Amino acid sequence: MNECIFCKIIKGELPSYKIYEDEYTYAFLDISKDAYGHTLVIPKKHCTNMLDVDEDTYCHVQHTVQKISKYYVENLGYTGINILNANNSDAQQSVFHYHVHIIPRKHNDGLDVWPFHDSNNEIDLAKCAEELKYK
Q1: Which of 63, 99, 101, 107 is catalytic?
Q2: d(CA 128, CA 135)
Q3: What is the pLDDT of residues 63-119, one digit of tens each?
Q4: Cα–Cα 20 to 30 A to 77, which of 67, 71, 90, 98?
């Protein structure tokens, strides 16, 4: 993937603020600067998102996400972690290389990362469960 921005970061063709690296994954700060410590974890192997990643690569990414998250909480004084991931355009994925966002949190940090605040009373949970049930 010659045009993939994350592949270019992995190859060293573009700069990044590296947080962690191992044989399979690379973690770096998100350049959006929307939250202090906002970290992205990506596989070194290109895949579009969680829907097409192979199981081994997925497990390596999740292992790194957990490792970094625990480090932030156990060693750096954070008291919570948000883990976010978007898959495909309609879910607001903006870079089409599988990645997981880690947003380290502290009490009263002022961040609001949940997109929903009010219940949608029009949702029939029984009908919804029947439609979504894995078969």
Answers
A1: 99
A2: 14
A3: 999 999 999 999 999 999 999 999 999 999 999 999 999 999 999 999 988 777 677
A4: 98
Structural domain that includes position 88: 5-132
The single-letter DSSP state of residue 31 is: T
- The yes-or-no answer on residue 60 being catalytic is no
> What is the per-residue DSSP string for 45-99?
S--SSTTT--HHHHHHHHHHHHHHHHHHHHHH---EEEEE---SGGGT--SSS--
CA dihedral sign of residues 69, 25, 52, 11 = positive
Total structural domains within the chain: 1
- Token digits for 70? 């625990």
- Domain of residue 16, CATH code: 3.30.428.10
